[in-house]
Amino acid sequence: MSHTLENTNRIITLDEFIIRRQNDFEYSTGELTALLRDIGVAAKIINREVNKAGLVNILGMDGAQNTSGDVVQKLDIYANQKLIECLQNSGECAGIGSEELDEFVELPRLAHKTPHYVVVFDPLDGSSNIDVNVSVGTIFGIYRRISDPSGGITAEDFLQKGSNLVAAGYVLYGTSTLLVYTTGNGVNGFTLDPSIGEFCLSHRDIKMPKSGLFYSVNQGYYLKFDVEMRRYIDHCSDMNYGLRYIGSMVSDIHRILFQGGIFLYPNTRKYPRGKLRLLYECAPLAFVVEQAGGRAISLGRNRIMEIEPKSMHQNITIAIGSPDTVTEMEQFLEKYAVRPV
Ligand code: FBP
Fold it and tell me: DSSP labels for 107-125?
């Protein structure tokens, strides 16, 4: 019997899975494989620090603020640094864009390498939850660069639509640590087995429920939402949907991937264009959710994956989750909208 990935229940590590699925990629030269492995290594290092955060002096604020005005946590900085370091291992990454850095950064080139990819990431999403031991995550997206690989990277290499992503995913540092990713051929999840230090295939070909009875929004902002959003939230409670909001998008999206439902971050007075970042949070998670059968739109009713970023730290409103539940929300926007967002 040939040892295909499908008909086996032996341990399949992330590395083996990536190599065996390499031919799924359009440009399957091993470069993307090496990049995904670099991200896997960074995730293990960050996981080690997150897990012992309470024991070492890495909790709390660094005191600095990032471009979006968020107070930066020490672990944010650490995670950011580790991702940058690890993405230099294979030499396949020409540059990075991080939620924690104002501008993109060109990475030093390895002698015999011509890197064709750039990576965007939110090193530690939900960072406001770190100090209270609530799950946080790393979000990443990989684009094939547009600029000439023999030259330097440019902003256009990063300001690409989500539909240009060649791979995207997240690492969830929760009760266990999971890496979930897609290359456009379905979504698979790998659980870190600390005893062997390997991410092992644990969730094969994840498919999101078509609808769900959970909605996820910071209802504390209810009075600051537009009328159509308030009408939709009223509808959710009329329908006895359960409200679940962890306050770290990766954790909320991960729950919806398995239990269904919808996650919303609408525009508010404080965030007139929404709070979440198109490049580092919304587009990569939209790619994963769509590949699992879900939907992701802005409250302007545009498909997140089709929105062209205008700047590295562009904010966007988002409704993401089970296809039927997002469509139901969309109908509320159409019915009650008083002005296009
Ligand atoms: P960070 O990436 O800076 O952590 O911000 C994003 C985030 O924490 C999301 O993970 C979460 O969904 C949202 O902000 C929570 O925002 P709010 O506290 O306004 O509800």
Answer: PPPPTT----EEEEEEEEE
Letter for the amino acid at 30? Answer: G
Apex 59 CA angle, 55 and 61, nearest 5: 165
Confidence at 24, pLDDT banded by 50, 70, 90 = low
Distance 244 CA to ligand 1 centre (A): 14
Q: Which two tokens stand for residue 147?
A: 């600029």
Q: Cβ-count burial of 40 within 10 angstroms (0-12 exposed, 13-18 middle, 19+ buried)?
A: buried
Say which residue the tokens 């031919």 belong to.
23
> Can you tell me the mean pLDDT for 100-121?
95
Q: Is the pLDDT of residue 43 over 70?
A: yes
| pLDDT surpassing 70 at residue 2 | no
Mutate-to-test residue for ligand 1 from 124, 229, 276, highest number of ligand atoms within 8 A of CB: 276
Q: Is 22 helix (H, G, I), strand (E, B) or coil?
A: helix
DSSP string for 204-237: -S----S--SEEE--GGGGGGS-HHHHHHHHHHH
Q: What is the pLDDT of residue 1?
A: 43
Structure-token match 């946080």, residue found: 136
Which atom of ligand 1 is least distant from the CA of 68? 3
